[in-house]
Design a protein that fits this description.
With 188 residues, the chain is α+β, with helices and mostly antiparallel strands. It has two domains: 1-28; 31-182, Immunoglobulin-like, CATH 2.60.40. It has helices at 2-26, 126-133, 148-158, 170-182, and strands at 35-41, 52-61, 68-78, 84-87, 99-109, 117-118, 138-142. The radius of gyration is 22 Å and the shape is elongated. The termini are far apart.
């Protein structure tokens, strides 16, 4: 009788392990880019040059009682004269089934401008826009900031958290300092 129970336990553990492996292998493939966009002025529709785009990836892993979420990597790109950017493709799979790479979390910044949005499209869902961003490309619309408060709010969104090595975002830091000085604040 004990041998039968032992076989049930072993069989059960094997089934649970195989189910976990199957879930890990069958989970959707994360969007891996490259992410492409053209950035335009919301009022004029003209391409914007020298817009800084930060793409931040975090690593989330199992932790008790809460999952751990830590800095993984960041890319800093700048739009060209046609307002175009390409965030390089990357492997967004984790090292094990309990680790997930989250991102990119995108920040778009140009001094004097407010927060970005995707240009309206017929299929317009957020998910559809992000899928197009990661495949064929999208148009990102950036409105001019109308008030000092809008500029201050945007400035508060530019620099990522303290875990990000500042040497990986030199242009964002320079633009942040330029806007800080323009608003009468101390640069970093």
């Amino acid at each position: 009788m004990r041998t039968i129970r032992k076989h049930y336990w072993v069989s059960g553990l094997v089934i649970v392990a195989l189910a976990g492996l199957a879930v890990g292998l069958l989970r959707p493939t994360p969007l891996a880019g490259p992410w492409r966009a053209q950035i335009v002025d919301a009022e004029t529709g003209q391409p914007l040059e020298a817009v800084i785009v930060l793409a931040l990836w975090d690593k989330r892993s199992f932790g008790w009682p809460h999952p751990d979420r830590n800095y993984h990597d960041i890319d800093e790109v700048v739009s060209d004269k046609d307002g175009r950017i390409v965030i390089p493709a990357r492997d967004t799979s984790g090292r094990h089934p309990f680790e997930k790479i989250i991102g990119p979390l995108v920040t778009v910044f140009k001094p004097g401008y407010a927060n970005w949005r995707f240009q309206s499209t017929p299929e317009g869902s957020v998910k559809a826009n992000w899928e197009r961003f990661a495949r064929e490309g999208v148009v990102i619309v950036v409105p001019r900031a109308k008030t000092r408060d809008e500029r201050l709010h945007m400035l508060s969104l530019v620099l990522p958290g303290m875990e990000v090595p500042i040497e990986k975002i030199p242009r964002a830091l320079a633009a942040y300092n330029q806007e800080s000085i323009h608003l009468g604040l101390q640069p970093r």
